[in-house]
Write a structure and sequence with these properties.
heterodimer; A: alpha+beta; Cytochrome-c3 Hydrogenase, chain B; 16 helices; globular; B: alpha/beta; Rossmann fold; 5-stranded parallel β-sheet; 8 helices; 10 strands
Chain lengths: ~500, ~260
């Protein structure tokens, strides 16, 4: 794709706002439609309080991000979604945050059930007293058709969300997912920042992806401050991210086993997941990687003695992981259950802009570590792990392949870190560049994490946008459930294992 | 072509994986050297008029009292900012994982004073719930961090069931709620309804900085500042998130089951 109307930038590159092309609304629209038709993904579409629209197209083949903006003449514009389904949730979000109405949007509903940040009225006439998830749900009617409503509070240790299934007997005709219960206002909290709490809020955007979000935030600040992070520090950050992936993928494979009643792997993985989390805790004191990274460097370095000490624990944890997971693949009853559930077509995956594990499980070859390499992944690449069938089995299998790659990366990185001295402690960052845009992406264990910042004339955040992979992927779960038995919802849901809080912000 | 796993493979795996349930509370598991537990403050080291720790704290949870800096663990994220900012090393995190408290006031760490850990539930409550405590978990704006470490207690490593504690799927089957998250406005009604559905007598446990006082979101108008803004809370377990050992310590302390806690491994 060559979309010359847009400015090409690299992942984590700060660019002065005056160098980001301003397009007319018509050509902005055309650039997005042409770009996505040509194979680019709409990685981010967002508005600002002064009624401007910003778009980030990810051109994975060219390893470039393309950005542009347009000024809205009023509070209405022609929706992109009918021609570009990837824009679907972004346009609902724009409407909810700023009261801007994308006319002709085919599925026009709130996203998180809050009132606009600006003085404009809620497009749905909502007020302070309005309740979350009270909206028109898609409804199927007919003989023997029934509706199942679940949540927000679920029957386990799970975040809240509301699910409406339209069923005919056991078969799900349609599932609609209403979220927003976890909305705690992270993007709004970032305005005027960076504040003392901004790093903590980035880390807790989705607490199981502390490193993925924390790293995206740190890189964004470093680019805006014009600070280069030393290669060894980047390698340590890579270790942090891959340990996060190991723990969560192992946990997911265990939970998937549990959902089909294969208890040996479920029990083993529940415990082994903790072993991986404990490796992170060894370095930074927190099982979830809290306060491991900080803008400019690390709160907690991984010194040679520590790296040497972690190596045998890595070997042991990996041996246990292999033993537990290989048992899973040798059980025909498990494999067949996995293969028969939750299929998503590659064309659907591309149309809705799916990312991460569910996209790669459909054979869509994307991974930020490969396509928009950051930190250590330029010098120490990790290939994308792919499967073809787009079902539960493929999503489980991709996780397994990624475990193998991450383990290799970790092993090499710890060897290298054991033989090199830590970088000097990073001092505070210089002030951030004024009137500048930066987009920073990482590949978390769920998929693409995107943070975008626009600074004002004083180098403070005039807009901070976070796109968790779950924002792209929840709709994929709804599609994967069509035609499935409702009893398979837990299995399908677990195979995506999406974040509620990452979506709700 | 796949065949069903011969049982011998499962048994061999079981043998290789071994018996891994922790012996806690007989032996307290080793925690990493960099684990950040109960803060220790040596106020005698504080330079005159210094407020470096209080200024560095992102949640403003450190106040300068007459005895020196005091930390309100309710909003402490256990981040290293205060200890890194202190020019004299007067404040540091110890390895002490025992953080649960019975009231919000007890969450204050004051130099020279013992930390007031949670006491056991009353005799009548203990008679009813002491041997079997069923909890309904409500995530009300949590980041899934506390949820992760609450969940982990159910794995074979911790085996929560051996203490008679279990997470249940319905509030009607529960003796109380375990709440995570700052309670977002959007979860207020759901939390209230869940609480109302739990039969009496019932207890409430707030896990994590968010559920105690709003955590990293304490300034946000989108949340209410913790569980006690909606329901009465009987046990507070600080942390961001609390270590599973901290959570279990709090639960056992509350049930009055920690008389036999052993030595650290």
């Amino acid at each position: 794709m060559s979309n010359h109307a847009l400015r090409a930038i690299l992942n984590g590159q700060a660019v002065p706002l005056r160098e980001v092309p301003e397009l007319t609304l018509a050509s902005f629209r055309e650039a997005i439609l042409e770009g996505t038709r040509g194979g680019a993904r709409l990685a981010c579409l967002c508005a600002t309080p002064d009624l401007r629209l910003f778009a980030v197209l990810a051109d994975d083949a060219e390893k470039r991000l393309r950005v542009a903006w347009a000024r809205l003449p009023g509070t209405r514009y022609q929706a992109l979604t009918p021609e570009c389904p990837q824009a679907h949730l972004f346009e609902r979000e724009i409407a909810e945050q700023f009261g801007i109405i994308p006319e002709g949007h085919p599925w026009f509903k709130p996203v998180r059930y809050h009132l606009p940040w600006s003085d404009l009225p809620s497009p749905w006439g909502r007020d302070e007293g309005s309740l979350p998830a009270v909206t028109d749900f898609f409804k199927v009617s007919g003989e023997e058709v029934h509706e199942v409503a679940v949540g927000p509070v679920h029957a386990g240790v799970i975040e809240p969300g509301h699910f409406r299934f339209q069923c005919h007997g056991e078969t799900v005709i349609h599932l609609e997912i209403a979220l927003g219960f976890q909305h705690r206002g992270i993007e709004r909290a970032m305005l005027g920042g960076p504040h003392a709490l901004s790093l903590k809020q980035a880390e807790t955007t989705s607490g199981d992806s502390t490193i993925a979000h924390g790293w995206a935030y740190c890189r964004l600040l470093e680019a805006l401050a014009g600070v280069e992070v030393p290669a060894r520090t980047d390698r340590v950050r890579g270790v942090a991210l891959e340990l996060e992936r190991m723990a969560n993928h192992v946990g997911d494979l265990g939970a998937l086993s549990g959902d089909v009643g294969f208890l040996p792997t479920a029990s083993f993985c529940g415990r082994i997941r903790g072993d991986w989390l404990n490796l992170s805790a060894e370095v930074c004191g927190s099982r979830l990687g809290r306060d491991w990274l900080k803008p400019g460097g690390l709160h907690h370095d991984l010194n040679p003695a520590m790296a040497t000490g972690l190596l045998p624990r890595l070997v042991k944890s990996w041996a246990d992981t292999r033993d537990a997971v290989e048992l899973l693949w040798s059980a025909a009853s498990v494999v067949i259950r996995f293969e028969m559930a939750g299929r998503l077509e590659p064309t659907q995956a591309r149309e809705i802009g799916l990312v991460g594990v569910p996209a790669r499980a459909c054979g869509v070859n994307l991974d930020v570590r490969k396509d928009h390499p950051f930190g250590p992944y330029r010098a120490h690449p990790i290939p994308a792990s792919l499967a073809e069938s787009g079902n539960v089995h493929s999503r489980a299998w991709v996780r397994w392949l990624e475990l193998i790659e991450s383990q290799r990366f970790l092993s090499e990185a710890l060897e290298a870190l054991a033989g090199s001295d830590p970088d000097p402690r990073a001092g505070p960052l210089p002030p951030l560049a004024a009137d500048t845009l930066c987009v920073s992406m990482t590949e978390g264990w769920r998929g693409e994490v995107l943070h975008l910042a626009l600074t004002d004339g004083h180098g403070r955040f005039a807009r901070y946008k976070i796109v968790d992979p779950s924002f792209h992927n929840w709709f994929g779960l709804a599609l994967a459930l069509r035609g499935e038995q409702i009893s398979d919802f837990p299995l399908c849901n677990k195979s995506f294992n999406l974040s509620y809080c990452g979506h709700d912000l | 072509m796949t065949y069903e796993t011969p049982m011998i493979h499962i048994l061999l795996s079981r043998w290789r994986q071994g018996h891994r349930t922790l012996t806690y509370p007989k032996v307290v598991p080793r925690l990493p050297e960099r684990f950040r537990g109960l803060p220790r403050i040596q106020a005698e080291k504080c330079p005159e008029g210094c407020r470096a720790c209080a200024d560095a704290c992102p949640t403003e949870t450190i106040q300068l009292g007459p005895a020196g800096p005091q930390v309100n663990l309710g909003r402490c994220l256990f981040c290293p900012e205060c200890s890194e900012a202190c020019p004299e090393g007067a404040i540091h995190y110890s390895q002490d994982h025992r953080l649960a408290a019975s009231t919000c006031d007890d969450l204050m760490v004051v130099p020279g004073e013992d930390y007031r850990r949670a006491h056991a539930m009353g005799a009548e409550l203990k008679r009813v719930l002491g041997r079997s405590l069923k909890l309904r978990v409500v995530s009300a704006g949590g980041c899934n961090g506390c949820e992760v470490d609450v969940n982990v207690l159910g794995t074979i490593a911790w085996d929560l069931g051996r203490f008679g504690i279990q997470y249940v799927a319905s509030p009607r089957h529960a003796d109380g709620l375990l709440i995570t998250g700052p309670v977002t406005k959007n979860m207020e009604l759901a939390l209230r309804k869940t609480y109302d559905a739990v039969p009496h007598p019932k207890i409430v446990i707030a896990v994590g900085a968010c559920a105690i006082q709003g955590g990293p979101f304490f300034r946000q108008a989108e949340q209410l500042g913790g569980a006690s803004s909606v329901v009465p809370v009987d046990l507070y377990i600080p942390g961001c998130p609390p270590h599973p050992l901290t959570i279990l310590d709090g639960l056992l302390r509350f049930l009055g089951k920690l008389g036999t806690e052993g030595k650290r491994a």
